[in-house]
Design brief:
The complex is a heterodimer. Chain A is of the alpha+beta class. Helix content of chain A is about 60%, strand content about 10%. Chain A has two domains: about 110 residues, no CATH class; about 325 residues, no CATH class. Chain B has a domain of about 190 residues: Up-down Bundle (f41 fragment of flagellin, N-terminal domain), CATH 1.20.1330. Chain B has a two-stranded antiparallel sheet with strand order 1-2. A two-stranded antiparallel sheet of chain B has the order 3-4. In chain B, strand 1 and strand 2 form a beta hairpin. Chain B is rod-shaped. Classes of the chains: A alpha+beta, B mainly alpha.
Chain lengths: ~475, ~300
């Protein structure tokens, strides 16, 4: 046992506690940093030789403390759960947003929606029935039908605009995902090298975790831990990042809302064109683009077509102001099937409104106008439109409720993650105090040994001087 | 469970946000006065609101139809009353002509002239128009129901094309009476009978007996037309009352679904405000202290 081994042990203590204070400082500095995981110094008592030999014996007393390792405290299972829940949350947010935008586009219930326009058309027909001779009443119903056609166009266009915007967002999101995947691959390489050289890479790992969480939000990514600190990222079973290399995804499919039936939107791998089952925001937006928005556009189209069929049939049974049979009221300018986007009032003259049910010479019978006005009741277009709005309301409300539930689950998981990885200031301050005390104690230890040695060196052998 | 400052901050923030969110929703309801702002607020409520709105629109239209129909019926009634007055004068002349066998040629001519002019006035009344359409002309597009010279019916009456006004989604009330219905019976019509009386007054006093009988028959028809119009008018008035009630009921129904309950909402806002303030002060208390406060 060396004379100075006590000093050495005290020095390691000084050094280790300094290290502890440094790490505490880092923790306190990052108490509010997003994605930061608290760090802890692993102290280990330095013992004797592990393999005693003739010239390598231990005195039985340890030789101080070692504080080489700085651990990053994070629970990989909780992180995995966090990825899943965040992806679900993001997907529901995207879907709920889509429903909310559709509700705004249809403006129901209120005085500006299609329901009101329909009601006004039926009223207009009753005014014609009240006085078929009045050209003002006839002109009014004509204009009201044009307003209705315009309202259908407008709502249809709004949904189309929403579709285009969502598609653009999704395409930007895919670019973002590719960039993040590239960054993760780069970080993977850096972390691997650091690990191989036994250097700490905690901050790099934190950065990588933030990126992975972002990917989970955006596209529903999941991870698998490899050796040397590598992290593989996959989406729906397709590998996105594998070690130091990242693949890229791309968005494929129709470029306008009408094409989704034949060419649905999908995210595929850049190489090989394999389609990827995505989650997260991308999953929600794909659902909105392929199902939700085209669904309501389709329903509007059906309503427009049914409106035209019903009114054209009724109008055709009547006779106009010149005694001729009623022409179709609604059609399209180029003869294509009627949709909410193409529906158009086909008659322009007030004389062409077929209010009469009596054939032959010009007369002012009101029968047909009354019959058309009565299309408002029963299982007509009005009821069909109401059904669509109620269905939209139900789906939107369900989506909002699901989001509420998912949000509270996500919060719980986030809280659990935070409780493992977050910095607690009280704890850090307590640690700080104990490191400080230990440091002072080690200093005192050195003084004590120093004094002992001083006695030995300077005061011994002075007898009789 | 380990609790960290950041977790406390995050949960506090989330709670505050939730509080503020509900506060904002209540405020939105109060300022807009509406409970239903999107279908998802209440899908069934939306359905009821949309139905009520459509029915309100229809009821307003029925109200217009009814007042239009009432105008038509009133005009018909007063025209028929005037025509009855004129016809009674014709009857007086006929009685006068048939009783006084000793009337001079000149007096007979005078009676005949008066009967002629009364016939003209009857034809004029029979061609009364409402908004440009002859009252008794059926669905004719022409300006007259009767030819002013011959007294022949020139309107257009097709079975099943009577003029109705729709007073509710299921009911329609007929508002017109056609010339043939009001002035013709058993092949006799008012204008030809009066024409015959004018001739008989001058030339054939003996024929006036038969003329008087015929005129009475025609007058009875006119009286029953007036009675008919009166009955329909009464029905129209009743429908107007029903329509008014319906309109008010619909307004209440819509308000129930769409509008906020003011006292209730204000109470809830007040409670939410208290909750929000409590959350704020709790947060302020929970976030501030750390061990730092107690270290030298």
């Amino acid at each position: 046992m060396s004379t100075f081994s006590g000093l050495n042990a005290a020095t390691t203590a000084l050094w280790a506690n300094r290290r502890g204070l440094d790490v505490t400082g880092q923790n306190i500095a990052n108490v509010n940093t997003d994605g930061y995981s608290r760090q802890r110094v692993d102290f280990a008592a330095v013992g004797g030789s592990t393999v005693p030999a003739f010239f390598s014996t231990s005195p039985g007393i340890g030789q101080g403390v070692s504080a080489d390792d700085v651990m990053r405290i994070r629970d990989a299972f909780l992180e995995g759960r966090g990825h899943t829940e965040h992806a679900n949350n993001a997907q529901l947010i995207a879907e709920t947003d889509a429903y909310e935008l559709i509700e705004q586009a249809l403006r129901e219930p209120g005085t500006t929606g299609i329901q009101k326009m329909l009601s006004e058309v039926w009223s207009g027909w009753q005014d014609v029935a009240n006085n078929p001779a009045d050209t003002a009443a006839r002109g009014q119903v004509l204009k009201r039908m044009e307003t209705l056609a315009g309202g259908l166009h407008f709502s249809h266009e709004q949904l189309g605009g929403q579709w285009t915007q969502t598609r653009e967002n999704l395409s930007v999101l895919v670019d973002d995902v590719n960039a993040a995947a590239g960054n993760i691959a780069t970080l993977n390489v850096a972390i691997q090298r650091a690990r191989q050289n036994d250097l700490p890479a905690n901050e790099l790992a934190d950065q990588r975790d933030v990126l992975v969480m972002k990917l989970a939000d955006q596209i529903g990514a999941t991870v698998r831990h490899g050796k040397d600190g590598l992290l593989d990222v996959s989406v729906g079973g397709m590998s996105l990042v594998s070690g130091g290399s990242a693949t890229t995804f791309k968005l494929e499919g129709a470029i306008d809302a009408d094409g989704t039936g034949t060419d649905p939107l999908r995210i595929t791998t850049d190489v090989g064109d394999f389609s990827v089952r995505v989650g997260g925001t991308a999953g929600g937006q794909l659902n909105a683009l392929n199902t939700i928005i085209p669904g309501y556009r389709g329903q509007l189209d059906t309503i427009a077509a049914n409106l035209a069929t019903e009114m054209n049939a009724a109008h055709g049974e009547g006779y106009d102001a010149n005694g001729a049979a009623g022409k179709p009221l609604f059609g399209t300018s180029d003869g294509t099937p009627i949709t909410a986007a193409t529906i158009k009032v086909m008659i322009s003259s007030t004389d062409e409104i077929a209010a009469s049910l009596v054939p032959g010479a010009k007369n002012y019978d009101r029968g047909n106008a009354d019959k058309i006005a009565q299309l408002a009741t029963g299982a007509g277009v009005d009821a069909e439109y109401r059904t669509m709005i109620v269905e939209l309301g139900v789906q939107s409300a369900v989506s909002q409720r699901n989001l509420d539930i998912q949000a509270s689950i996500t919060t719980t998981v986030d809280a659990a993650r935070e409780s493992v990885a977050g910095v607690n200031l009280d704890e850090e301050l307590t640690n700080m105090l104990s490191y400080q005390q230990a440091y002072a104690a080690a200093g005192r230890m050195i003084t004590a040994i120093d004094e002992a040695l001083d006695v030995l060196i300077n005061r011994t052998g002075l007898v009789g001087r | 469970m380990r609790i960290t400052q950041r977790a406390v901050t995050l949960t506090s923030l989330q709670g505050l946000n939730q509080n503020l969110d509900s506060l904002g929703k209540l405020q939105e309801q109060l300022t807009s006065g509406r409970m239903l702002n999107a279908p998802s607020d209440s899908p069934t409520g939306t359905n009821r609101a949309m139905q009520a709105r459509a029915e309100q629109e229809a009821t307003a239209q029925y109200a217009r139809n009814i007042s239009d129909g009432q105008a038509w019926l009133n005009q018909t009634d007063s025209t028929l009353q005037q025509m009855l007055d004129v016809t009674r004068r014709v009857r007086d002349l006929t009685v006068q002509g048939s009783n006084a066998g000793a009337l001079s040629e000149v007096s007979r001519e005078a009676l005949g002239k008066e009967a002629d002019s009364l016939r003209e006035s009857l034809l004029g009344l029979a061609n009364t128009t409402v908004t440009g359409r002859p009252l008794f002309g059926g669905i004719t597009s022409g300006p007259k129901a009767y030819d002013s010279d011959t007294g022949a019916f020139v309107g257009l009456v097709v079975p099943g094309s009577e003029i109705y006004r729709r007073v509710s989604s299921t009911e329609s009330v007929r508002v017109d009476v056609t010339g043939p219905e009001a002035f013709e019976v058993d092949g006799l019509d008012l204008f030809s009978v009066v024409d015959r009386i004018a001739t008989d007054l001058r030339t054939d006093p003996a024929g006036l007996e038969q003329d008087l009988e015929d005129l009475d028959l025609v007058m009875n028809t006119m009286l029953s037309a007036v009675a008919d119009i009166g009955a329909r008018s009464a029905r129209m008035d009743r429908e107007a009352l029903i329509n008014l009630d319906q309109g008010m009921a619909l307004g209440t129904r819509l308000a129930e679904v769409e509008d906020i309950d003011l006292p209730n909402t204000i109470m809830r806002l007040q409670m939410q405000q208290t909750a929000y303030e409590a959350a704020l002060s709790a947060t302020a208390k929970a976030i501030t202290p750390t061990l730092l406060d107690h270290l030298r």
